[in-house]
Write a structure and sequence with these properties.
By secondary structure, this protein is an alpha/beta fold. The chain has 11 helices and 10 strands. About 45% of the residues lie in helices and about 15% in strands. α5 packs across α6. The longest helix is centred in the first third of the chain and has 19 residues.
């Protein structure tokens, strides 16, 4: 099934596979593509328990489609950036875990998109780059917050000033990726991880994503209190009962 033509959507059991489909532009994130992502994450089907995102044509995403931004007024750029923030936040806070399979170019807005996802798989030949400084522009898709949290403000500053490129293995060491695999194997690994995640309790998956993100921005004592509340909610429902019974009965749990 296609969401427009720029985003392909396929469902395999409990896993949805989203393919960024602008290979002629190395999957640059056009307004239409961002709108298609917005539409999908606004109404993820109830049967989907994990989402895999990849790019067509050998590249994840080369970033913002700069051909749409050569001449814009400040308020237009501000509105565009804030819309990106909204869409990326929708992905980052999705109760359904998102796994990215990253190959080729993962640059600028493409890396900002990747940083909003929950599990990141990179091929060794990936090129992580934040080239905005070379283009005379500043990031606008959330990178100054999300990528800074992954690798630190100092390293992001250096990336943007120099246009430095990191490989998949270097990106894993820094925190841009969680897994690194040989060329051509990212999608297979992403599905392997998504299948594992999809067997978890959907409720607890949502707690992991949303509670940890909130706790990370809280003062320590408030974070510990929020942790206790989340633990109480997670350990008093049917999923907790099934998980504990399955452990005691030495069988895999079956979560509804």
């Amino acid at each position: 099934m296609a969401a427009g033509d720029v985003l392909l959507v396929e469902t395999r059991g409990a896993i949805a596979h989203l393919t960024l489909n602008r290979p002629e532009k190395r999957n640059a994130l056009s307004d239409d593509l961002v709108s298609a992502l917005d539409a999908y994450f606004s109404a993820v089907p109830d049967t989907v328990r994990a989402i895999v995102v990849s790019g067509a044509g050998g590249h994840f995403s080369s970033g913002l489609d700069l051909s749409q931004h050569v001449s814009r007024q400040p308020l237009e750029v501000m509105a565009h950036s804030r819309n990106w923030h909204r869409v990326m936040a929708q992905i980052a806070h999705s109760p359904v875990p998102v796994v990215t399979a990253m190959s080729g170019a993962v640059m600028g807005g493409g890396l900002e998109f990747g940083a909003a996802c929950h599990v990141r798989v990179a091929e060794e030949s990936v090129r992580f780059q934040m080239p905005e400084g070379l283009r005379g522009i500043f990031v606008g898709g959330g990178g100054s917050v999300r990528i800074s949290r992954l690798i630190g403000p100092d390293r992001l500053t250096e990336m943007m000033l120099t246009g430095r490129t990191y490989s998949g293995a270097e990106g894993e060491r820094l925190g841009l990726a969680h897994h690194v695999v040989p060329e051509g194997q990212a999608l297979e690994k992403a599905f392997e991880l998504a299948e594992r995640i999809a067997r978890n309790s959907p409720t607890v998956n949502a707690f992991i994503i949303q509670a940890i993100a909130q706790i990370g921005s809280m003062p320590p004592e408030a974070g510990l209190y929020a942790e206790s509340l989340t633990a109480a909610l997670s350990q008093t429902g049917p999923d907790a009962e099934e998980g504990l019974r399955a452990f005691l009965e030495k069988r895999p749990p079956v979560f509804r």
